Write the C-alpha cells for this entry.
Amino acid sequence: MKKLLFLILTALNLVSLPLLAQQQVNADSIRNKMQWFADAKLGIFIHWGIYAVNGIDESWSFYNKKISYPDYMKQLKGFTASKYDPESWAALIKESGARYAVITTKHHDGVALWPTKQKHFSVVKNTPAGRDLLSPFYQALDKQGIKRGAYFSLIDWSHPDYPGFTKDSTRYKISDDPKRWERFQKFYQAQLKEVSTMYKPDLWWFDGDWEHSAAEWQAATVRKNLLSANPQTIINSRLTGYGDYETPEQNFPVTKPKYNWWELCMTINGSWGYQPQDTAWKTPYEVISIFADAVSNGGNLLLDIGPREDGTIPKEEIHVLKELGKWNQKHGEAIFNTLGGIPQGHFYGPTTLSKDSTTLYLFLPAKTSGSLMLKGLKNKIKKIRVLGSDKQLQHKVVGKISWSPVPGLVYIDVPATVHDEYMTVLAVELDGSVELYRGKGGLQE
Ligand code: GLC
C-alpha cells in the first residue's frame, strides 16, 4: 500500500517537490553570495613570489627545466620584500577602480607567503623577508573597501609527498602509494584551513587542478570545509568543477559565454610574475577595450601585476592601472553594478545595461565618429548623454515602415569633439526597459 501511495505521489511529482525547493534555495543563496562579484567587474591579480628574484617564469621555469630545481630554490635567499608597502598597493588597486584583489598565497613552487605551521617552505622561515606578507595586505585592502581574494595552488611541486615534480619526472604513482598521497591531502588541506582562519578570504582562486581528479583532490570536501568556515566565500572553477564561476585565461571569448558568472584573467605584458625582459606591455587603450568587452559579455576582468622581489611595482603596470582608473572614474556608470549588454549584432561595439535595463550604454571603439547605427531597438529614446561630459547627442530613426512591427534603424550623430582619450561611452536613456526586435526582417515571423 505504502509503495502504491509512493508511486502515485511520484507520478504527481509531489515526492520530489522538497528536493526541487531545496535546489531553488541553493540557487538563490548562490545568486545572493555572487552579487558583489557580478557587480564588481574589475579585480587585480598579484603574482608575487621568489620567481621575481631572477625574473623567471613562476614555478614553471623549473618544471620545464629552464633552470634546475636547486638553482630555482636559491631565489629564496634573494626574496627581501624590503620596500613592500601594502598600503600603497591597496591605494593603487583602489585607484584603478578594482573592487577585489587576488594574491598568490602559494604558487606551484610551494612557497607560502604566510607563516604556515606545516613543515614546508614559507617566505617567513626561508627568505630574508622573514615575515607574514599577507596580513598587512589584506588589512590594507579592508581599509579601502576592497574584497580579499586568495590564489592557492593545489599543485605543490616542492612537497616531498606530491607526486608531480618536473615535466619528465614524478616522485611516485598514487596507486603505488596511496598513504603518501593521503599525507599530502592532509598537508594541503591543513594549509587551506590556515589561510581560511587567518585571512577569511571573500574569494578563493584555486589553480593547478588539472594534475588530479576531483576525487583525488577531495574537491567536494574542500568546498564543504571552506563554505562551512565562511558560507559567503566564492570559489573559482579550478577546483575540478566544484567552483562557482568560470575562469578563461588570457583568451578572450568571442561569443558571449553561457556561464552565469565568469572572469577573464589576463596579464599586462605576457607574464604573470615580474619578468624585466618582457616588454610586451598592453596599452591602456587595449586593456580598457578588453575590459569593456568582458563586461559587455557579462564577465569580469582580473588584471594581473607582478611586483619585484622587494615589493615595488613596475612603472608600466602602475601607468596602466592609473589610466584605467581615470577612465573608470569618468565611465563607471556604464561599468560597475551594470548588466551585460544586448546581444551582439545590434551595435558594432560593446554595450552594457543599467540594472533596470532602461539605460543602454554604447562603447565606441577606436574613436568612432560620424553616424552610428543601432539596430532593432523597439523603445523610444528619451536622451543620449556622453558620459563624463554635459554633452547630449541627437539621433534619427531611419526606415521605419508604418505597417511593420520591425523598428527603424537608429542613427546617432557623434562628433569627433566628444571623444575620450581612450574610449567614449554613450548613455542611451530609453522610455522603459530595453526591448529588442530579434527577427529576420520578414513580413510574418
Ligand atoms: C596558469 C599557470 C600559472 C598562473 C595562472 C594564472 O594556470 O599555471 O602560472 O598562475 O595560470 O591564471
